[in-house]
Amino acid sequence: MAIKLPTIYNVYLVAIIATLGGMLFGFDISSMSAIVVTEQYIDYFDNPSGLIQGAIGSALAGGSVVGSLIAGPLSDKIGRRDSIFVACLPWLVGTAVQVGYQNFGQLITGRVLKGLTVGITSSQVPVYLAEIAQVEKRGSLVIIQQLAIEFGILIMYFIGYGCAFIPGTASFRTAWGMQFVPCFFLMLGLPFLPRSPRWLAKVGRQEEAIRVLAEIQAGGNIEDARLIAEWEEIVTVMQAEQEAGPGWRKFVKNGMWKRTMAGMTVQAWQQLAGANVIVYYLTYIAQMAGLRGNVAMVTSGIQYAVFIVFTGIMWLFIDKTGRRTLLVWGALGMGLCTSSSVASWPPNANIVIAVNSGHPANTVILFSYLLIVVYALTLAPVGWIYAEVWSLGTRATGMSLAALSNWIFNFALGMFTPPAFVNITWKLFIIFGVLCMAAAVWFYVFYPETCGKTLEEVEVLFSNNGPKPWNTKKGSERLQAGIDAVKARQEAKQGDDSDAPAASIAPGAEKVEAV
Q1: How far is it, in rounded angstroms, from Cα 377 to Cα 325?
Q2: Cα 217–24–21 angle (5° rounding)?
Q3: What is d(CA 421, CA 425) in angstroms, rounded to the nearest whole number?
Q4: Whether 378 contacts 436, CB under 8 Å
Q5: pTM of the model
Q6: Rounded alpha-carbon distances, angstroms, from residue 133 to 345, 454, 455
Q7: Which of 203, 374, 389, 416 has an alpha carbon within 20 to 30 A of 512's alpha carbon?
Q8: What is the per-residue pLDDT across 3-55, written as a single tens digit (0 to 9) for each?
Q9: Burial of 509 by CB count in 10 Å (0-12 exposed, 13-18 middle, 19+ buried)?
């Protein structure tokens, strides 16, 4: 007799468990940044620099590109929740390979395997959260993914810092071995989470989809007017998507090219803005400013804590502030911070630029902090939240394409940045400043406001007859109209003692076939 596990329906608890997948990514980022400046790492790997260090740093991103490619088909086949579970397996293998490495090839192989996991989880966790959230909570749920990444960075950074006092290779083998822990808890918690109700509807499991949606959003009440209105809209959109047909054309037909472009470029700009370069190589930048030893390590760790604090502040306001507004002003603010940190820096041989002491060094540290603050409030969370632009029929594969864009640019920047510190020196920061300004223009011209709208309502924004992006505003009128219509029908039927079955809350649901 099969044992049925209890299911968790509290959306915030669900989000905390699911976003442990994001914590894996954070653990990997700081497991490298805290270790690459230690004597143990430098001695064992013969002071790696330039292209070699770039290959080590970007190996995870390379694996993530592959993971992103397979994430969409895998998620559509077995579901959002189960695809995240399957993604944990290469992380376990990759971590074991990395901990037991003997040479560069083995270290890179382990990081590529872990990248497969990050590629799948980074694309499908936001999809899963967006599909279970109420419209007014969607941003605050998806932002938990970014918070999980940041907590992973902070926790692992100080684990790496502590392990730096262990002599020999045990220092970083121990730190890297700690990456088993969040993966274990993720695999332990996933079976207790519900499947995405929109995925269940997509594959023809309507009654189960209605029940899960009711448990998550209406305390199990299938007669809730809001629930009925949302379900009817889901069914209507599913039928329209089925009429559009399968294949790659659904990513470009009837205005879908606008959504494909928006979903992919927001991830590209998140990387090109340059903040992740600061996150990856923060310890190097601290050394550029003349900080050494424990002072440099603690200064870098404090900046990770600042990252969490300001993302946490935005968690309180993300669904009250427009996505478009945050993107435009965030890019402008990051461009200002990046350009303001420019000083006259001569390079040395180990991907470190020596900053003149005094005011120039203080300026670099100050604007590195400010850059992270602006990034934490804007592009960092909104880049993932903008997964809401995809339709139900394209969401899993579409977010895979978006994550693919993210990881391609992440990989390119990982390879480019260490040699750039040596060859381009301070001009590198000017490049990122110009890219930030270009991003602000791009966001203003091409990105409509999606805050407060149902996932189905977003369809209209990107349709051929949709409004100009700069004429859009946050909030949902269509959902409220649907709720009012349902309430009117319910009032008209008062006095009817018959109890309709669950499927009857969605007229026409039986017409929706599995796709």
Answers
A1: 11
A2: 20
A3: 5
A4: no
A5: 0.76
A6: 48, 10, 10
A7: 389
A8: 677 889 888 899 899 989 888 888 887 777 677 777 888 888 777 766 677 77
A9: buried
